[in-house]
Amino acid sequence: MARKNPSMEVAVVMHLLVLAAWCATAASSAKPKVCDKGWECKNSVYCCNETISDFFQVYQFENLFSKRNTPVAQAVGFWDYHSFITAAAVYQPLGFGTTGGKQTQMGEVAAFLGHVGSKTSCGYGVATGGPLAWGLCYKREMSPSQSYCDDNYLYPCTPGVDYYGRGALPVYWNYNYGTIGDGLKVDLLNHPEYLEQNATLAFQAAIYRWMTPMKKKQPSAHDVFVGKWKPTKNDTLAKRLPGFGATMNVLYGDQVCGQGPVDGMNNIISHYQYYLDLMGVGRQFSSDNLDCAEQEAFNPSSTSSSTT
């Protein structure tokens, strides 16, 4: 019988140990690192970046929406910083305000709030503090001209319920309340009034719209802003390119895009740049492709219902 070579056995064992250690290292390196930042951001690679409250604090929120609690505002006492941060905490692990470097993170918050401020403003040209200081003045559409009830078999209208604009990014139409309600697991189809009763829920609905593709064959506003969306050849031919301009295309389509330098589009851009300045980023970093004046809509209104 051949004698065993002890040194050979040791070498084999050492080799196996090294191989096992390498496999373990490779397996661990294949999994992205995840982090926890307390209640605000948990168990996500995005939580390894700064969280929104690290760079956007109460005084900045107050600066952005400085006139929201004046007596003439419709939503006095409704909107506050805590409601926004609580709502944002649901989406920070998914990349809202936590994607990329600090400038991109701050830019996304300014971009999102720029839309919010524009759509909830009661400011006008000679308003105290200027027309851009009056965001979050409203929480609902005032004097709606219709009930916004569409014949939709998936989300039929509830008798006696009106689906006029409510929330931080106002939601209109029964099918949009139904879709967003499904996403939030809240019965907004039967109770659209929840969006004017709970500020945290109203912000959640708005951020859900920002983070989620609301129509087929189009990206989310989040993806087009942070650069995760890659335009196709058809997108390029239609002048749809990543940037703030494309967020307006995603959210409003040809209501504001492809119409030239219309007031509705310019008002949203003005709020965004004003907020960049107040947050300390500066409008010089409002990025390329700022407007959508010449962009073709992702889903023209003649062939698709409005998401607003």
From TrEMBL:
Q: Which InterPro entries match?
A: Glyco_hydro_19, Glyco_hydro_19_cat, Lysozyme-like_dom_sf
Residues of the Glycoside hydrolase family 19 catalytic domain? 60-292
EC number from the UniProt entry: 3.2.1.14
What keywords sit in the KW lines? Answer: Carbohydrate metabolism, Disulfide bond, Glycosidase, Hydrolase, Polysaccharide degradation, Signal
Q: Name one GO molecular function term.
A: endochitinase activity
Signal peptide span per the entry?
A: 1-29
Principal EC category: hydrolase
Q: Which cysteines are joined by disulfide bonds?
A: C149-C157, C257-C292
What reaction does this enzyme carry out catalytically? Random endo-hydrolysis of N-acetyl-beta-D-glucosaminide (1->4)-beta-linkages in chitin and chitodextrins
Which Gene3D superfamilies does the annotation name? 1.10.530.10, Endochitinase, domain 2 (3.30.20.10)
- Output one GO BP term: chitin catabolic process
PANTHER family in alphabetical order: CHITINASE, CHITINASE-RELATED
Q: What's the protein called, per UniProt?
A: chitinase
